[in-house]
Design goal:
Largest sheet: 4 strands, antiparallel
Oligomer: single chain
Number of helices: 2
Length: about 180
């Protein structure tokens, strides 16, 4: 039995979990999320708990068992409290702003970088250098934050770039002149 998969997901007050045509649909105070469930995994909603079981003891089924349970747990906590990732833009003249559904960043290139904000994600910019990515889908929040970071990864010599708040960038000494 999967250690994670066998733990039931407790459904808090105000959250509704349903199975509809091979999908788990979770709705709560912050919104509604639906995800597909692999056909070899069975999801049952019983008296305030979600139970996940698998078809066999094959390695692939064991992996899916824990994965599906974790995804459902993330969906339940997403519709109750939501998820948030914060990015910090470091560098002289580096800044960001939100215009409609587009995040526009100046990262030292000859042109501004425009990133389309996906549906279900809200982006707020604080002091032109702190970007907060938030939403109810943990996977989408993390993916959006990673895409923004990918435009200019933190470099080790001057430390410039887009990094997660609290991320430590190992610095290198650079060249020394004799």
């Amino acid at each position: 039995m999967s250690r994670i998969g066998k733990i039931p997901v407790v459904i808090p007050q105000g959250v509704d979990v349903k199975m509809e045509q091979g999908k788990v649909v979770v709705s709560g105070p912050k919104g509604k999320i639906a995800k597909d469930v692999h056909p070899r995994i069975t999801v049952k909603v019983d008296s305030g708990k979600v139970l996940v079981t698998r078809a066999s003891d094959q390695a692939a089924d064991k992996a899916l068992h824990g994965l599906v349970r974790s995804v459902i747990s993330n969906m339940v906590s997403g519709v109750t409290s939501g998820y948030k990732k914060s990015l910090e833009i470091v560098g002289t003249g580096f800044k960001a702003k939100v215009e409609g559904k587009v995040l526009e960043m100046a990262l030292g290139y000859s042109h501004p970088i425009k990133h389309k904000i996906p549906d279900g994600i809200t982006i707020e910019v604080e002091k032109n250098v702190i970007v907060h990515v938030s939403g109810i889908d943990k996977e989408l929040v993390g993916e959006t934050a990673a895409e923004i970071r990918k435009y200019y990864k933190p470099e080790p010599y001057k430390g410039k770039g887009v990094r997660y708040v609290g991320e430590h960038v190992r610095r290198k000494a650079g060249k020394t002149v004799a």
